[in-house]
Design brief:
The chain is built from 12 helices and 15 strands. The protein is α+β, with helices and mostly antiparallel strands. The protein folds into 2 domains: about 1-290, FAD/NAD(P)-binding domain (3-Layer(bba) Sandwich); about 290-370, no CATH class. The strands form 4 sheets. Strands 5-4-10-11-12-9-13 form a 7-stranded mixed beta sheet, with helices on both faces. It has a 3-stranded antiparallel beta sheet with strand order 2-6-3. Strand 10 (about 170-175) and strand 11 form a beta hairpin. Helix 7 runs antiparallel to helix 12 (about 360-370).
Length: about 375
């Protein structure tokens, strides 16, 4: 999605664009990221033909104190989703690639670029936009995959079954580990189901843990052969200064820039936004400002996600459940992009606010973020 967004934005800015995709769009099977927010930023009609199936009314969030059979729910909230769809991501990507082809972008499918050839490949262009995920192709070519910090691992599958009780809403379930399980119905009879963990809490048997989570939440268990595994950066996951490499004429966007949400792993709207920003600055001859501009745009989201992540790591499901109840009703995109909206809700309950923030580790996490010392990367302040 980041590569498609970059091709769209740079073409719109007046550049001649080549888009390289290592697979065929018709053959790809990508289930990760099928709940898309900020859909109005994607230049496609949100129709089923283009892969947009369920215009999501609300995302339900439930918090439990564990995964045992006698677990208790500590909180529940509903978060409207005015600009969100549950999608077939493959179909969205195919439709966007077709649009780019009609616009005159040279779309090269089934064209992987080996990391050993990347720098020579980059020499053939004025600029290469690296949208190759985490760790990025350019980092592999430079032998710097260690420049990335922590990551999440996620399993997901397209599953047939009875989702009539949930559809058209979607659901995320937090179960007192650093991660969550989800059900994103596309229709009353079909949904994207998944589970994710922070990398240091991943189980020995991914699929067994996934199947158990589906079973305890009352969802059909997917087949192993239809289940995909993905790794996702915990933003901010890369030193902001490394998102633009002028010495190699490379700019990184999306997961390659390490900007997925630290709690949810959500990264498509960030991928689109970072791609559009890179094109805007490149057209103005100001790409050197990209790291700082990108970082400042996303910093409120990083800060808020860092606090929520602390509640997960500290195993405080009652506090987290109370916070979800208090924030219920805030648009899901605003939770990420305008977290002051949530903070104003929490401020109505000073005791809850104190329970969240008046702890040494929580304050330390907040201070580290405010001063740009992020645990995942140890990154300093972005330039620009």
């Amino acid at each position: 999605m980041a590569g498609l967004a970059a091709a769209e934005a740079f073409h719109d800015a007046g550049f001649d664009v080549d888009l390289y995709e290592r697979q065929s769009y018709d053959a790809k099977r990508v289930n990760c990221g099928e709940a898309m927010t900020a859909v109005s930023e994607i230049p496609l009609d949100p129709t089923p033909e283009n892969g947009f199936h369920n215009p999501l009314p609300a995302l339900e969030v439930e918090v439990y104190d564990g995964t045992a059979s006698d677990r208790r729910r500590t909180g529940r909230g509903e978060f409207p989703a005015a600009d969100a769809y549950i999608t077939d991501r493959n179909a969205v990507e195919r439709a966007w690639a077709d649009r780019l082809d009609r616009l005159g972008v040279a779309v090269h499918e089934d064209h992987p670029v080996p990391s050993a050839d990347f720098l020579e490949f980059a020499d053939g262009y004025d600029l290469v936009v690296d949208a190759t995920g985490h760790p990025s192709l350019s980092s592999k070519a430079l032998g710097r995959t260690d420049a990335y910090g922590a990551r999440l691992v996620a399993l997901n599958a397209d599953v047939a079954g009875d989702f009539g009780d949930l559809h058209p809403n979607a659901r995320i379930v937090l179960e007192n580990y650093t991660g969550y399980v989800w059900a994103f119905p596309k229709t009353p009879r079909r949904a994207n189901l998944g589970i994710g963990w922070t990398f240091d809490e991943r189980p020995d048997d991914y699929f067994a843990a996934f199947a158990a989570a589906c079973d305890r939440n009352g969802w059909p268990v997917p087949s192993r052969d239809r289940t995909n595994v993905a790794t996702i950066p915990e933003g901010p996951n890369l030193d902001p200064d490394r998102t633009y490499l002028p010495e190699h004429s490379v700019v990184r966007v999306g997961d390659a820039a390490g900007i997925a949400n630290r709690v949810t792993g959500k990264g498509i709207s960030q991928a689109v936004e970072s791609s559009y920003l890179a094109a805007e600055l490149a057209a103005a001859g100001r790409l050197e400002a990209y790291p700082g501009r990108l970082y400042r745009r996303l910093k409120p989201e990083f800060l808020f996600a860092s606090v929520v992540r602390h509640l997960l790591e500290a195993r405080r499901p009652r506090v987290l459940g109370a916070a979800v109840r208090a924030a219920s009703g805030v648009d899901i995109e605003a939770v990420d992009r305008a977290p002051t909206t949530v903070l104003r809700r929490l401020a109505r309950n000073p005791l809850l606010l104190a329970r969240i923030f008046l702890r040494r580790r929580a304050l330390g996490r907040l201070y580290a973020g405010m001063t740009d010392r992020w645990r995942a990367t140890g990154a300093g302040r972005g330039s620009g």
